[in-house]
Amino acid sequence: MNENEKKLDSETNEPIPPSSGDQNYDANKSELVLGLVAPVGTDLTTFEDLIEAELAKYLYEVNIVKLSKFLESPDWVRVSGQQIDRSSQFLRYETLMTAGNNIRDKKGQSFLAQLGIYAIASDRELDEQGNAMPLKRKVHILHSLKHRKEIEILREVYGEGFFLIGLYSSRNDRIAFLKRKEISETDATSLILRDYDDNERFGQQTSKVFELSDVFINLRSDHQDQAREEIKRFLGLLFGYPFTTPSPDEHAMFLAYAASLRSGSLARQIGAVVATKSGDIVSTGTNDVPRFGGGQYWDGSDDARDFQRRFDANTSIRNGILTELLDRVADADSLLPADQKEQIKSASPEEKLALGKKIFKGTALFGLTEYMRDVHAEMEALLCCVRVGISVKGGTLYCTTFPCHNCAKHIVDAGIERVVYVEAYPKSKAVDLHSDSISIDGNVDKKVSFEPFIGIGPRRYFDLFSMSLGTGREKIRKDDDGNTTKWAESSSIPRLQMKHIAYLDREVRVTEEVQKLLKEP
User: Fold this and answer.
1) Residue 490 gets which letter from DSSP?
2) CA distances from 424 to 138, 237, 252, 283, 399 (A)
3) How many Å is the maximal CA-CA distance in the chain?
4) Residues 6+ apart with CB under 8 A from 87
5) How much is the mean pLDDT over the chain?
6) Cβ atoms of residues 188 and 240 within 8 Å
7) What is the dihedral of CA 376, 382, 384, 386, to 10 degrees?
8) What is the mean pLDDT of residues 255-269?
9) pLDDT digits (tens, 9 = 90+) for 474-511
10) How many Å from the N-terminal Cα to the C-terminal Cα in the chain?
11) CA 268 → CA 37, 262, 366, distances in Å?
């Protein structure tokens, strides 16, 4: 053991990891940045109160950065061109959404997050050389994030020290919250739909950001005690508590994401696993093309997936339907004026397709999936059980994405009792078509329960649960005598820390250390 490995942290008395470097590993300078993504109507104040109380046990202070406040300042009102209408809460929400869209249009899709970064940086003190200093024992909480580009810039700047927290709140709870602000149920529903996925190019996309979360917490109104425990558990993992292990849901969802990575689909990668009531994993599945003899293609000389054929069959056939519809309209006697009919008939195939996309974009036609060659991940997980003779009756299906309506009916028919998912899927008509047998409002007798995933997300599974394979400090569970190690919130520091110097600076410091060691006898 060399001298560096024997160095102990001044606060925890734990060994300093050799790879972290003394100047990067300072408990007093450890900062964290947490981003919140939550659908409109979620009670963020309750979450802030809960997490602030828990962070106080670690001697950490909280700095709340509300991105919507920037939209209300006179300087940014001039940029967005949208005055915030405070005559009613509904109009305030509406105009804030429009202002956010305008800002993203004019300044870039990540700009609101950049303003949050600017606000954090503005609070820093400078050292004698004029360099910004870390803020000691500080957690910055940014809310509410609404666009994927905002997450990208925050992860680029803060790296391992940034965590995105997805806050789940039921639709009924959100409508009730908005109604308490004197917003009608009709207007509340309108806000929820717009927030979920604004059709505008630079609109907010809560549904697409939510799936990127590192941890998912349930903020249902009847779930607050459990929410406190979920926050406490997450912070314990974040600050290196060594004895928390994955829940059955976390373990299964991690395997579902692992299964998704073998998909060669041209569209997206989706994974699924089936588990028994006791949590045993009995099958996995991904979305990919079936092969003779059962199962799906792997890499090899006989691989005949879509990327080998160089086109997506579903898109190709859908495009054919688009042009066929236009031709039928042009041939009809009284649907269009003669000049427009002639314009369609004389158009090239490319022009006709472009026109069809313009006319029918947003319709159910663009949600067609039955012409794709892939077997869906959920179906493959079920079929895998069929091939080996395992019953799935009474089991749980974990899927990275909410099942489509076609898979949903087979899930019900197979006897699955519970479905857990991360990513929403707006095209799915599962609940509309099968409301008699599917519930999304919790456990309902004689219905399959479709539930959002709650827990540590697959993105940070290794970082938070692995003793040594993830990023960050090694977890030590016992001392040299075989006794469990002691751990206390007040003396703990984050397992994953932001490096307050750039990689080029770190290279210089390592080089200087190597040169110093080479000169030693």
Assistant:
1) G
2) 33, 27, 18, 23, 11
3) 96
4) none
5) 87
6) no
7) -140
8) 95
9) 899 999 999 999 999 988 889 887 777 776 676 677 67
10) 18
11) 22, 11, 16
